[in-house]
Amino acid sequence: MPKFIFRIPTYYQQIQKRNFAQALALLPNYQWTSTSKRRWMCARLGIYTPLLEAEWQGGSVRSGVAYVQALSAYGKLEECEKVINRLIKRPNISRYLPELIRELAKYNLPLAIKLIHTLPTTKFTIYHRALQSAYLLQGTTKKNHLEKFFDCQKYMAHKDLVSNSIEYPDLLLLESNWQANTHTDKLYYLNNYQSHFDLPNYEVIDDNAAFNSLNLQVENTIYTAPLSMNKEKQFKVSILTTMYNASQYIRSTLESFLNQSWHNIEVILIDDASTDDSLNIAQEVAIKDTRIKIIHQENNTGTFLAKNNGLKHASGEFIICHDSDDWAHPLKIEQQVMPLFLDQTLMATTSDWIKIDNRGNYFARAAFPYKQKNPASLMFRRHTLKYMLQDDFLWQPVRTGADSELFERFKLVFGNQSIRHISKPLTLGAHRSDSLMNAKHTGTQSTDSRIQRLQYWEKWRLEHIEMLRRAHY
Fold first, then answer.
1. Please, what is the angle between helix 126-137 and helix 109-116, to 10°?
2. Which residues lie below 8 Å from residue 262, measured CB to CB, with a gap of 6+?
3. How many structural domains is the chain composed of?
4. What is the DSSP letter of 156?
5. Which of 170, 310, 336, 405 fits as disulfide partner to 349, beta carbons 3.0 to 4.6 Å?
6. Which residues form the Glycosyltransferase 2-like domain (predicted)?
7. Could you report the per-residue pLDDT of 57-104, keeping only the tens digit for each?
């Protein structure tokens, strides 16, 4: 990690800049819960263990709100509700309710919905109505669709969706979940949504197949970006994709790479000891295009060790990852690489995604909004590796969560201003029950696996704070 040569901002300056990790790094750990502001910063960073240990003795509301977030994240629901019942009796709780609802929605959606009913009228926004409707629509089937339809009308009228969709485009996806039953209807809402981000329209590949990420493509042929076709073959982008039993998705995923407007790419596909037909399918696609390189691992190591292995084979000036069950929009690589080409002070870019299930319904872990930052979308310059590698690893050798750690480490090393976020849905993610985020043993719905993820999150947060301290002293 490069040494800082500028004067380290003071504790209060770091707080003003919302650099909470840097602020806590200037304090001994035992002081992190000594004020309500510090407890709140811990909650914002996902450092929940000190909050659980300190508990809440009925002091400031902000301390109580931070404690509730920690209880909710760790699945301590009974205690969480008890503390909330005490907090909502406080006269100044309304100031913190919107934030608390957003945070609770990540881990305890029913409680977040319940808390919405305590909001004063002045704090009740279109987001809260959308969240209530999105929550009701989760688990919609053909049998209960009509019942869900009328339930949603309690919170959201059609005119509300239309009048607010310019400011909140995700309302169009909510209305699709609510109103659309045919491919034509679903395309109408999706393409209206795309237009908000200046992205081309989609079309359905097969009218008789499900409306999902496998059955969508852009309407018209995408141009080839001239910069990606220069004679010197500069500006190559290496796309790292790990694959384990992805036979249903891998053909669509690989073809989405080959159809990119940015032609100068190489796809490093690491087969993590798949036991299905994934490897054969990938080889069929690779025969048609030499830009795909396949690495087969005899033993399953997990996606992040596999990515580290693939990184050794990457030759691009820019590097990005992509999941094997997700579809890359044809403009994704171009729209993430161009800011790096135009601004040499930028070290990386990221982008958003939306997740869609096999029935054409959109999904988000916190119910709404649907567009979220894609944790695997970090595109970075090759030369940053000399500052980022740890024991020859870029991604920490764990089963889940290393993408988030890498992104935060990038911000620590190069600064927030060195990463530009492209706020467009450049990836269509497949929402499926057996994915890493949703599977029984690794997903966020299981309390045990969620706690393991949280413990890893806190572990690397503490490591980052120690990195900051070493750089300071």
1. 140
2. 225, 228, 237, 333, 334, 337
3. 3
4. -
5. 336
6. 238-357
7. 999 999 999 999 999 999 999 999 999 999 999 999 999 999 999 999
Which pLDDT does position 234 carry in this prediction?
85
Structure tokens at 188: 């109408």
Q: How far is CA 342 from each of CA 124, 296, 337, rounded to the nearest angstrom?
A: 42, 36, 9
Q: How far apart are the C-alpha atoms of 461 and 415, rounded to whole Å?
A: 16
Q: Quick one: pLDDT band at residue 142, thresholds 50, 70, 90?
A: low
The β-bridge partners of 352 are: 373, 425
Nearest-angstrom CA–CA distance, 100 and 220: 44
Whether 8 is in a domain gets the answer yes
Tokens 């009740």 correspond to 124
Per-residue burial over 182-195, b if 16 or more Cβ lie within 10 Å, else e, is ebeebbbbbbbbbe
In this structure, what CATH number is given to the domain that contains residue 368?
3.90.550.10
Q: Which of 365, 464, 456 is nearest to 408 (CA)?
A: 464
Give the C-alpha separation, 414 to 417, whole Å.
Answer: 8
Are residue 171 and residue 248 in the same domain, yes or no?
no
Q: Are strands 379-381 and 348-356 parallel, antiparallel or unpaired?
A: antiparallel
CA 98 to chain centre: 21
CA distances from 22 to 52, 240, 348, 470 (A): 22, 31, 21, 12
Q: What is the 3-class SS of 278-317, one letter each residue?
A: HHHHHHHHHHCCCCEEEEEECCCCCHHHHHHHHHCCCCCC
Query: What pLDDT does 6 receive?
Result: 44
Taking CB atoms within 8 Å and a gap of at least 24, the contacts of 286-294 are 286/254, 289/258, 291/257, 291/258, 291/265, 291/266, 291/267, 292/254, 292/257, 292/258, 292/266, 292/267, 293/266, 293/267, 293/268, 293/269, 294/269
Question: Hey, what amino acid is at 111?
Answer: L
Return the number of other C-beta atoms located less than 10 Å from residue 424's C-beta.
Answer: 20
β-partners of residue 204 are 216
Of the candidates 36, 44, 53, 2, which has an alpha carbon nearest to the alpha carbon of residue 20? 44
Backbone angles phi, psi at 472, to 5 degrees: -70, -45
What's the domain range around 95?
1-124+439-473
The answer to whether position 367 is within a domain reads yes
3-class secondary-structure state, position 360: coil
Query: Please, which pLDDT band fits residue 145 given cuts at 50, 70 and 90?
Result: low
Q: Exposed (0-12), middle (13-18) or buried (19+): which is 228, by Cβ within 10 Å?
A: buried
What's the chain's average pLDDT?
92
Measure the CA–CA gap between 294 and 266, rounded to whole angstroms.
11
Residues 350 and 449 in one domain: no
